[in-house]
Amino acid sequence: MLENIHRTTAYIKSRIGDFVPEVGIILGTGLGGLVNEIEVEKQLMYANIPDFPISTVEFHSGKLIFGKLGGVNVVAMQGRLHYYEGYNMQQITFPVRVMKMLGIKTLYVSNASGSLNPGFKKGDLMVIEDHINLQPQNPLIGRNDSDLGPRFPDMSQPYRIDLIEKALNIASANNIICHKGVYVAVTGPNLETRAEYRYLRIIGGDAVGMSTVPEVIVARHMDLPVFAISVLTDEGFPEVLTPVSLEEIIAVAQEAEPKLTLILKELIARN
């Protein structure tokens, strides 16, 4: 894997010249519009990058964007990879390792997720303070390469506390409803049953989604600080559960996106 990482990194560097990103951004379902705030210097299609997996999900465009956001050099993944697409965990997290090799110092992750907490409503934002991993594979399984990170990385603080507090302060100052909570990662692609929503709430989840945790595990393995935020696009409340479609999820995500963009842009500019 390390050989592939170096080959991919070398190719990208040959295309972006002396541009060195300080921040990496992963944009979730329906949340690719943050790219409009980036002063774009270079765009690379995933399909044209050696060894880079290709996003197959609708509304994930599959571009690596290089430019400035809030005066900071960033690289943004416009379209992420998911376990349910058939990729293994090493493939899903490969871009995080490449971004680290390109020079990023912090990883910012966004996603669309379902609320499990009755106090968190559809359209609200939630800063992730911790997570529960219910996905069946771990990206660190297999031989460990000490050049990438330790065999047993600590996960007592997977998300940077100072960035969490700063994000909540930015939200408050701009009258944005933004909670702090625990994210549960499942495989998908189906949404959850009533009993599953009930179970996920019982074990301590505030929101549920199908991504993010593998990338966070690998980032922490490489000693990359992480900030993550969810747009709550639907409500998994067993008592009043109603069917939801992808179109509805995308619509809510896109409506909430300007709030998420404001928080990320200000947070990145301040750090």
UniProtKB/TrEMBL annotation:
Biological role: The purine nucleoside phosphorylases catalyze the phosphorolytic breakdown of the N-glycosidic bond in the beta-(deoxy)ribonucleoside molecules, with the formation of the corresponding free purine bases and pentose-1-phosphate.
Official protein name in the record: Purine nucleoside phosphorylase
Pfam families the UniProt entry points to: PNP_UDP_1
Residue ranges of every copy of the Nucleoside phosphorylase domain listed in the record: 23-269
Classification of source organism: Bacteria, Pseudomonadati, Bacteroidota, Sphingobacteriia, Sphingobacteriales
UniProt xrefs under SUPFAM superfamilies: Purine and uridine phosphorylases
Family: Belongs to the PNP/MTAP phosphorylase family.
Keywords, alphabetical: Glycosyltransferase, Transferase
E.C. numbers: 2.4.2.1
CDD domains attached to this UniProt entry: PNP-EcPNPII_like
EC class: transferase
Annotated TM spans: none
Gene3D superfamilies hit by this protein: Nucleoside phosphorylase domain
GO molecular function: purine-nucleoside phosphorylase activity
InterPro entries: Nucleoside_phosphorylase_d, Nucleoside_phosphorylase_sf, Pur_Nuc_Pase_Ino/Guo-sp, Purine_phosphorylase
Pathway connected to this protein: Purine metabolism; purine nucleoside salvage
Organism: Mucilaginibacter roseus
